[in-house]
Specification:
InterPro entries: CitMHS_2. It holds the Pfam family CitMHS_2. Keywords: Membrane, Transmembrane, Transmembrane helix. The protein is mostly helical. The protein has one domain. The chain is built from 20 helices and four strands. A two-stranded antiparallel ribbon has the order 1-2. Strands 3-4 form a two-stranded antiparallel ribbon. The longest helix is centred in the N-terminal third of the chain and has 57 residues. The radius of gyration is 23 Å and the shape is globular.
Length: 520
């Protein structure tokens, strides 16, 4: 397990390795050029392309059934559902190995992730060649690398902020921390709020015996539900902002968020109060003399603001695009990623090692996320392509079943709980546009969706954000919070244990209440 001093740039080395690996397909591309196939033939923008009339990938005759807008083959309509098997196996590995072979998993989780990624990628490349190569490079360059850079920068900067003093986790104090994190999540992102508060939350409760439920409710509220009020809160809402949803429109979800958060906070308070009074241990006697609370490393808030500003900037400006290994990405996105790395490096240079050590900071949680999510991102490529194909893919029965707001809420949410919630949001966003405003350009249709069909957009937005709490992989900070908690000595439920003991018991009933109040 790494320490702040021994491996300070391990993550940057990991990125260098990833980018080196991405460069290798150039050899295969060169051989494809003998058949007049180039990776440039498969280049598309990183956003989902939709038919102008319906919002779906609409075929126009057999010749164009599998043609993308930029000349590449659209695999979504032809991929079978069993192509998602490696993704299912990846999830099962995350769920079962920590239970059945914990020692093996702790030392070899990266190899397991690589194995399932190869299981999907090798036959995928063999069958679909250049198109498959493009899809793999695209998800790594356009999705995975920015995803990990953002997580790393937030993790590094927040790890340099230390709360000192006597803070004891009584039920009221814990509810206050959870409520604060829920409010902060919409303005600094669920990842930023979670990484900022999880360590103080754990330290405040380190004398408590039953802490598992505390961390789970932290994931529910701070790492997910709280991020529903602005595009800064969660990636799907930011994607909606890029497609014309006004910045403060998401405040329409405030009643939904307050309902879920209020229910969960109330349940949490009574659970915490019950365990607090049952436990033999109370506030330790040697801490009867309280020391005042004090924030150390507060200069890192400047870097945190820089990260938030860079993310917002990348969605508000357009400096053109560059083609990297056949993937078109905005120059502003590359600038954002570079700026995020700079913020993390500045934090590392300007924050004393003592602060990070007192904060129990190690690199293991971000390394674990980096290794596991590269496997998740690669194996879920077929799932996302089939989903993006809409009514022309093998999930057409699901897409066609979505008719009313309650359908949009639960189906968008259910898929977001296990797949990337950003493309899931965009799929049903386009489905709603195509269903209600066929033939109308997006620039004119989105304002109508925000006003005339507001329930549909509320359902899509709330579902994509709220349901991210349903599993460890539902949203980026979930896994990191779990890893940090386990490092701090808090036992966490298994993948299925989390779903069975907490999601089904506490989370879904709260969503049912939201459904009956707002979507029926």
């Amino acid at each position: 397990m790494s320490t702040p001093g021994r491996r300070p740039i391990v993550f940057l080395l990991w990125l260098v390795v990833i980018l080196f690996i991405l460069a290798q397909p150039a050899v295969l591309v060169a051989s494809d050029q003998q058949q007049n196939i180039s990776i440039d033939d498969f280049a598309v923008d990183s956003s989902l392309e939709s038919h102008p009339a319906t919002g779906h990938m609409e075929p126009e005759g057999e010749a164009t059934l599998h043609e993308g807008a930029h000349g590449h083959v659209d695999l979504g309509p032809i991929l079978p559902l069993w192509s998602c098997v490696p993704f299912a196996c990846m999830l099962l590995s995350i769920a079962l190995f920590p239970l059945l072979a914990p020692e093996f998993w702790h030392h070899h989780f990266g190899k397991v992730s690589g194995f399932w990624a190869a299981t999907m990628a090798v036959p995928f490349l063999f069958v679909y060649k250049g198109t498959a190569m493009y899809e793999i490079i695209h998800i790594l360059l356009a999705d995975y690398v920015p995803f990990i850079i953002l997580l790393w920068s937030l993790y590094t900067v927040s790890g340099g902020i230390l709360l000192k003093g006597s803070l004891r986790g009584t039920p009221l104090v814990n509810v206050a921390i959870l409520a604060l994190g829920t409010l902060l999540a919409s303005w600094m992102g669920t990842t930023g709020a979670a990484m900022l508060l999880i360590r103080p939350f754990l330290r405040a409760n380190n004398y408590r015996k039953n802490r598992t439920f505390m961390v789970v409710f932290f994931i529910f509220l701070v790492a997910n539900v709280g991020g529903s009020l602005t595009p800064l809160g969660d990636p799907p809402l930011f994607l909606g902002f890029l497609h014309g949803v006004s910045f403060f429109w998401t405040m329409h979800i405030l009643p939904h968020m307050l309902t879920v958060a209020g229910l969960l906070l109330a349940v949490y308070f009574f659970l915490d109060r019950y365990h607090f009074h049952r436990e033999a241990r109370r506030v330790p006697a040697d801490e009867a003399e309280k020391t005042p609370l004090k924030l150390v490393g507060i200069h890192n808030f400047v870097f945190l603001a820089g990260i938030i500003g860079a993310v917002l900037m990348s969605g508000m400006v357009d400096w053109g695009h560059v083609n990297v290994l056949g993937v078109h990405r905005g120059i502003q996105d590359w600038v954002r990623d570079g700026f995020l790395i700079a913020m993390g490096l500045f934090s590392m240079v300007t924050t004393s090692l003592e602060i990070r050590e007192d904060n129990d900071f190690t690199w293991f949680p971000i390394i674990e996320v980096a290794y596991l999510f590269v496997g998740i991102f690669i194996t879920m490529i077929p799932c996302l392509l089939i989903l993006k194909a809409g009514a022309h893919g093998h999930l057409a029965f699901l897409i066609n079943a979505v008719k009313v707001p309650v359908h949009y809420f639960w189906i968008t949410g259910a898929l977001s709980g296990f797949l990337d919630n950003a493309p899931t949001y965009l799929t049903f966003f386009n489905t709603a546009l195509g269903s209600h405003y066929p033939g109308i350009a997006e620039a004119q249709a989105v304002p109508l969706l925000m006003t005339e069909k507001i329930l549909y957009l509320e359902a899509i937005s709330a579902g994509a954000v709220f349901f991210g709490a349903c599993s460890y992989i539902g949203n980026a900070p979930n896994f990191m919070v779990r890893s940090i908690a386990e490092e701090a000595g808090t036992p966490m439920p298994s993948f299925f244990g989390y779903i069975l003991k907490y999601t089904l018991v506490f989370l879904l009933p709260a969503f049912a209440v939201v459904t009956f109040i707002f979507f029926f």
